[in-house]
Amino acid sequence: MPRPARLTGARLALLLWLAAGAAAAQEVTLADDGRPVAEGELLGYDGRYYRLLGEYGEITLDGRALDCAGAACPGPDWVETVRVSGEAAILDRVLPPLLDAFALGRGLTLSLTEAEDGRRLYTFTDEDETVGVVRLHPTTSAEGIADIVADAADLAVSIRPVLPREVRIARAAGRGDISAAGRSAILGLDALVPVVSVRNPVAAIGVTELQGVLAGRIDSWADLGGPDAPIALHLPEPRGGAGEAVAALLSPVPEGVAAQTHDAPAALAAAVADDPLALGVTLRSGMGQAQPLALTGPCGTEASVAPLSVKTEDYPLTLPAFLVAPARRVAPFARELVDYMTSPVAQPVIRRAGLIDQFPEAIPFADQGARLGLAILAAEDQAGLEGLRRMVADLSRRSRLSLSFRFENASTTLDAQSASNVALLADALERGLFDGRDLLFAGFSDGQGAPGANRRLSRARAEVVRDAVLARTGDPGAEMSVAAYGESLPMACDDTPWGRGINRRVEVWLD
To answer: Which of 92-106, 307-321, 326-340, 472-486 has the highest average model confidence (pLDDT)?
Structure first.
């Protein structure tokens, strides 16, 4: 199987060329009252600031008192252009309706020009004046981030977090820490989902069994409760974001495993829907007429790809769609566009476009029956039942918010989606949505280790989340307390690493 793309040879060559400060046709000279101040390749201009690559690297200069000389200098008809590159599944489905809504909300006219290379230019005009241009380059998550590093894009869209390797290369190229807080935001949520034809009798698949299919250990439907027939496997193209997510969250697909690959989620779903012996893994946003399979665990748990399950991260294959920016000035039009796309106002547009929005929802305690049933089965002794009874007494009059918080492996560091959830909850508090209410940050653990140690760890994690929310808001207008319930309310089986990861969490319960 081809290795997932990171930075192509052409992009690495471009980075080396940038680092060497090679001269190009974009060479300009900036002068103050006739005295040269700086010269080099013009990398960007936002209406006020120039970015130049010169003898001493990349610099940014306030151009209000400077004159620009050179063929590349912006003229009086200069218009800000925002270059967006990244995952085609998101750029094709989600960005166009967001741009439409952005224009409509500001009374602007939006026109589209399509280039032969697949890039699309959206031009925003106010009467006869062009106020901004957005250029979309649908490609892959890896290429979008590579474009950020190579200064070929102002924003990247990715359905997986920035990789440590990409962070190192971006820092070396002068793009700053693209993994730092404030450098990325989550547009919405997607998920990987196993799918079959509606004519296939199988309704669920174990995560371990799905990994076995991908690894080539299982190749017959008979092993999955279906007919005695071979599995026709369909997968995303491995160099795309969905293909990278399959390898990272489920299993790398070894060479020799027979699978048909697809560039687009919709094409994969259509092929699976037409074949009763097909099994595919695709994005929830592009599963079309294919039938999603629930994911099961060895202890009897079951997780569906329902919106609330994805929003709470109770579904183990959730994929946030990230908007990533380099560590440099963002021009006014780009800043206004990003603020809109990541605001609560944009959430209904994102939901209609096929992603799952992040707007907090309240889930009544009465809807927790399946989880409570699993908790009763998992309570092995009287101490476990006592802990469960205490938890029910505390939470029975409350509703669970759909914002959950999970952590990177073996740490109290929030994962990418949870860090975004901190900002969402802080924003909701600042807007007064929970004024006068009581928010209980409930910590839970997996079942590994002694109960006392698990309760202490779950309390520590609950305090981390509460403190992170408090740090982002002044007066929250609500009571914010913590409680620790250890392993009292498992979401998944502790027999698997992914199950233990799902169980280690902090929930927010609203009174």
So the answer is: 92-106
H helices present in 274-322, as ranges = 307-311
Spatial neighbors of 108 by CB under 8 A, at least 6 apart, are: 102, 124, 125, 126, 131
Q: Quick: pLDDT tens for 354-395.
A: 999 988 889 888 887 777 776 676 666 666 677 778 888 888
Short-list 487, 507, 483, CA closest to 404: 507
- Could you tell me if 395 and 509 are in contact, meaning their C-beta atoms sit under 8 angstroms apart? yes
**pLDDT for the residue numbered 383:** 60
DSSP element (H, E) containing 60? strand 57-62
What's the CA dihedral at 132, 86, 360, 406 to 10 degrees?
-140
pTM: 0.83
**Alpha helix ranges (H) inside 52-176:** 88-93, 95-105, 141-149, 164-172
Residue identified by tokens 């944009």 is 346
Do residues 287 and 168 make contact, with C-beta atoms less than 8 angstroms apart?
Answer: no
Is 268:262 a contact under the CB 8 Å cutoff?
A: yes
